[in-house]
Amino acid sequence: MSIATSALPSQANKIRFIDIGVNLTDLVFRGEYHGKRKHDDDLPLVLERSRAAGVKSMIITGGNVHESRMALELAKEHGFYATVGCHPTHSTEFDKFKGGPEAYLDALDQLLQANVKGRGRAVAVGECGLDYDRTHFAAPEVQKKHFRSQLSLAKKYHLPLFLHSRSAHKDFVTILREEGFGINGGKEVGGNGGVVHSFTGLVEELAELMSMGFHVGVNGCSLKTTDNLACAQAINLDLLMLETDAPWCSMTGAHASKVHLNTLPTHLNELYFPPSVKPEKFSPGKVVKGRNEPCSIGGVAWVIHRLHPELSFEDVVDKIWRNTVDVFGLNELD
Ligand SMILES: [Zn+2]
């Protein structure tokens, strides 16, 4: 270690993150909110803040064919990674697609085929799964059918899954088990495990997912209530990953996580939660209120560290880094 490094006031330089779930294709990062322009494109500043906070890389979420294509483009441009798949709330797109569900699955397949290697590659099949809180977008039967069909892509390309499960645990694990993902993350059928992201379920559900060989992704939404915190604490640290789900899932003062964030050292607080303004009062270099950013991943990590006080912040973060590199095969980041 050089003198210059050891003289730094913090150990922030030793802290490094991979945000496994970031919706960087969302137009709010370009200043557009529900089709209305509110401020300039500030994606470069968002990325600058994330770098300052120790975010070394990200996995950009693809939520349908179009978004997956955009996610891959952004990943190539910035040297990140992407997922390719269709979110349950978009699953009616399979049936509406020209050529039908087979053609839609084939479009996802072709995106994977062309992008499984090199810079900006696809590292997971997803976001896919079931969301029974939002069946107004797609009925459970539609969601189930197209969740199941996407599992074939994970088998074909031996890729991990990036999974979403909301109020649908029973059907979710039933489909995974029926398709061979009930043991060891589906390795026996050609799969390669994966992560159930944005986990907000029950401790028993968590235990079942972990016993099936899946990892669990935690963000601000996973740390909202005291029950959430108890559940987050129960995640085996060898199976834990961090995400922001930005621009969603901001951590707020009303969440149970706040008591833990209150103990965040000032120099880290400045990096993870820079001053914010409303979109209408946009000022370059400031975070937009209510629009979560990858730099806040450090806050999620800090809460996890507080739930495991026997380990240092650095050790927790390092463990999670290792899990992420191993599952998604991101060895070039080391
Ligand atoms: Zn999700």
UniProtKB/TrEMBL annotation:
SUPFAM superfamilies: Metallo-dependent hydrolases. The keyword Hydrolase applies. A divalent metal cation 2 binds at residues 164, 197. One of its GO terms (cellular component) is cytosol. Gene3D superfamilies: Metal-dependent hydrolases. The keyword Metal-binding applies. InterPro entries: Metal_Hydrolase (IPR032466), TatD-like (IPR001130), TatD-type_Hydrolase (IPR050891). CDD domains: TatD_DNAse. Keywords: Hydrolase, Metal-binding, Nuclease. One of its GO terms (molecular function) is metal ion binding. A divalent metal cation 1 binds at residues 127, 245. Belongs to the metallo-dependent hydrolases superfamily. TatD-type hydrolase family. This is Mg-dependent DNase.
